Every structure is written in C-alpha cells, then in structure tokens.
Here is the input.
Amino acid sequence: MSSAQPRLEDTLVTGYTQLARATPNRRIDLELRALDVLFSGLFLIVLSPVALVIALLVLATSGRPVFYRGKRVGRGGHFFAMLKFRTLRPGAEERIGQYLGEELVRRTDAELTGFGRWLKASQLDEIPQLWNVLRGDMSFVGPRPIRPRFFSELARDLPAYWQRLVVRPGLTGFAQVRHGYEASMAEKLAHDLEWIADRSVRLYLRTLVSTGFRVVRQTIGYRP
Here is the structure.
C-alpha cells in the first residue's frame, strides 16, 4: 500500500522552512528565551488558581473539552499544538476553520459561548499558552501563530511572509498592541517584520507592559 501524500500546506511550509533555518541566530534570541522561561514559569505558578477556576467554569458552562488545541506553524516551520481555554461551541473549528480575516472574526463571534465571550474579551483564554512559551513553542512577544493552511496562502500573496518563521510566534506582538484584529494582513506583517528586525530586551518588556495594560482595560471595560 502506498503511503499517504503530504498535504499541500505541509509541503509549502516545508519549503519556507529552509529559508528560515538559513537565517543566523542572534545573541538577543538567547536573552529573550531566558526571559520567556523566567516569566512563563513565574506566571504559571501565580495564575494557577485563576486557571483552575476558569477550567471549572468552562466545564460547568459548556462541557468538554476544556482546552482548545490548534495546529500552528512555529519557528523554523515546525508545527506545534497551541493551547487555549475553549471559548467556542464544540465543533466550531470544523465550521469556521476555512475562513480568514473579517469573515473569520464574524463567524467566530457567532460561535462564542456565553462564558467564552468574556474569556476572549479579557484574553484570559490564552493563559494555557504560557505552557507553550515554557516549552519553547512560543515566545511572549512575536508574530501571532497561524494555521499551516493560511501560512501557505499568505506566503504566496506576501513574499516576505516566510520571515515570520525566523522567530518564535508570540502571545502578543507589535500588531496586536498597535492595531488589534482590525488591521490587514499586510499591516500586521509590517509590524511583525519590524519586531524581527529590531527585537531587543527593551522592546520585549515594553510590549509586555503595553499588553498588560490593554488586557486590564478590556477586562474592566467588558460589557456583555
């Protein structure tokens, strides 16, 4: 019996992987990785009671599964399972997974559970991604993780898109702090490339602080 053919998005990502791996590492990447390990370990300990309460509320309000695991493209083109608390109705991934941009935002909004709507607005649904950061799948700051299929499509339309593979995807990034969901893919890429070119400890810490203030404002100002 012949082996199964690889999916198109997997082969395209593999092609760009060689470009990303040819980019030399910088000393700053080791420094940022050390901060990732330090902060993710600390936050996992401090936020563990909050995470437990959220997990129980997800289970009580919409059942299993408690976590969402989504396949994403990481540094160097490696795939990993991105973790989040589930905010959508069961099976939503199959119904909306083919969409991108504004249409995805609209359909995602329609699939949110009652508790999931608050979780997403406060961004507390992303607490499990601290484990992704500790493991090395992600960083605190970087381009947001993307599905393999969408990476393949965007890499064809935006020639510089493969450069996102040079660094780890982030919990937050320049594009999220400056624009949020309304920015176009080209605008987000411009901010991602700015981070990749200028990444430093100072910018890393400044982005974390800005994100923290943003999360607090969204949580306090949330109206159902």
Notes: Residues 1-6 have pLDDT under 50 and may be disordered. The radius of gyration is 18 Å. The first strand starts at residue 67 and ends at 73.
